[in-house]
Every structure is written in structure tokens, then in C-alpha cells.
Specification:
Layout (H helix, E strand, L loop, with lengths): L7 H15 L4 E2 L2 E2 L5 H12 L2
Antiparallel strand pairs: 1-2
Helix pairs in contact: 1-2
Length: about 50
């Protein structure tokens, strides 16, 4: 079996998903967080934390 290594973008995406889940966000525009591109996640995260 081969080990699957996540890249730095995958790790960053997971960190952002974890932070959004900690804030109670589980879906954005009807989609699960893991289905969204990292850019949509970053946008949502920054909008929530700059208010």
C-alpha cells in the first residue's frame, strides 16, 4: 500500500474547514465544506472574522 500524502494546500484547506466547523459553519450555499474550493472557504472565513 502506498501512503497518500496531502499537499500544503490540502492541509491549509483542512485547517480552514476545522476553524469554520468550530464556529458552527457546516455548509456554505447548500454545499458541504469539503466540496468547496479553498478560495471559497478562505473568503467565508475572512468575512466572518473581519466583522
Amino acid at each position: 500500500m502506498r501512503d497518500i500524502h496531502e499537499g500544503p494546500m490540502d492541509e491549509k484547506k483542512q485547517v480552514i474547514i476545522d476553524r469554520l466547523v468550530d464556529e458552527g459553519v457546516f455548509k456554505i450555499e447548500g454545499k458541504q465544506l469539503y466540496e468547496l474550493p479553498i478560495y471559497a472557504l478562505i473568503k467565508e472565513y475572512t468575512e466572518r472574522n473581519t466583522q
